[in-house]
């Protein structure tokens, strides 16, 4: 188990997640069709080439899900009770096919749970960066985490 218990987290702590992922056309195509998203910018090379971006854009919800997924092994694997919500989700730069992405996480808040003694809520700021070190996705994730005695 790689995740940390609530009492092990410290506000200000940061993690550079080691796993990186190069986004493929198949990733984008499968995710877009699996979620019934027919947006031509994600699926139609001709339409995308005529857009201001000049190429296919990777589905933003895939980008978001990948960011969270890359963080799980170092944050909540085996210690999560539940994700309580996501806030301030932004995509400051687009993601394109072939981009290699990496994630970083910072603990920005933590507080004891009122309903689950020993457990607590940790707020993570996740950032996803491309190979040019541009932030392509960012959000806050509030997670209910088990205490080490829970």
UniProtKB/TrEMBL annotation:
Residues 11-120 form the MaoC-like domain. Signal peptide: none annotated. CDD domains: FkbR2 (cd03451). This is MaoC family dehydratase.
């Amino acid at each position: 188990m790689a995740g940390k218990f609530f009492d092990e987290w410290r506000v200000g702590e940061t993690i550079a997640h080691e796993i990186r992922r190069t986004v493929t056309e198949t990733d984008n195509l499968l995710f877009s069709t699996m979620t019934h998203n027919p947006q031509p910018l994600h699926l139609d090379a001709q339409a995308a080439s005529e857009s201001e971006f000049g190429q296919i854009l990777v589905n933003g919800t895939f980008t978001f899900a990948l960011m969270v997924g890359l963080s799980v092994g170092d944050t909540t694997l085996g210690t999560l009770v539940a994700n309580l919500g996501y806030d301030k989700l932004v995509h400051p730069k687009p993601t394109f096919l072939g981009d290699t992405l990496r994630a970083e996480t910072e603990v920005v808040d933590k507080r004891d749970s009122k309903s689950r003694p020993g457990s607590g809520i940790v707020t993570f700021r996740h950032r996803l960066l491309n190979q040019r070190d541009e932030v392509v996705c960012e959000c806050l994730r509030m997670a209910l985490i088990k205490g080490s005695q829970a």
